[in-house]
Amino acid sequence: MNALSTDQSTLLSKLPSFKSVAWTMLALIVVSYFIFHAFEGRHGLFSLVTSQTSLDKAQKELALLEKEKAQLEIQIAKLYRLNEFPDLKDELIRRNLGYIKKDEKVIFNIN
């Protein structure tokens, strides 16, 4: 019976205490919390990838809009000098106002 009690006491002395287990569990929970939020959440890696994709789309759209703006600025500059470009003046009047010359005929395509 004495041998059994010494074996039990040896086993019990080798087991970690409740306090050390509790601190280990608390540390694991805290580390897990920070690891989870490193990937998820507003500032996580997944959010970073989504933000980068949105940024790329916005930059492409910005480039298209800047190109369109440059073309519109060229047209505006031409409109200010409309008398220098009689063909442009004629085209704009025909397209926007629907004017035709007296000797022209209009053909409608009804489909």
Q: Give the C-alpha Rg.
A: 39 Å
Total count of strands: 0
Largest sheet: none
Q: Could you say which overall geometry the principal axes of the C-alpha atoms support?
A: rod-shaped
Mean of pLDDT: 84
Uncertain ranges:
none
* Distance linking N and C termini: 107 Å
Separate helix tally: 4
- Percent of residues in helices comes to over 70%
* Structural class computed from helices and strand pairing: mainly alpha
Order of helices and strands: HHHH
Strand content of the residues, in percent? under 5%
Number of domains: 1
What does this molecule look like?
This protein has 111 residues and is mainly alpha-helical. The chain has one domain. The chain is 75% helix and 0% strand. It has four helices and no strands. The longest helix is centred in the middle third of the chain and has 36 residues. The radius of gyration is 39 Å and the shape is rod-shaped. It starts with a helix and ends in a 14-residue tail after the last helix. The mean pLDDT is 84.
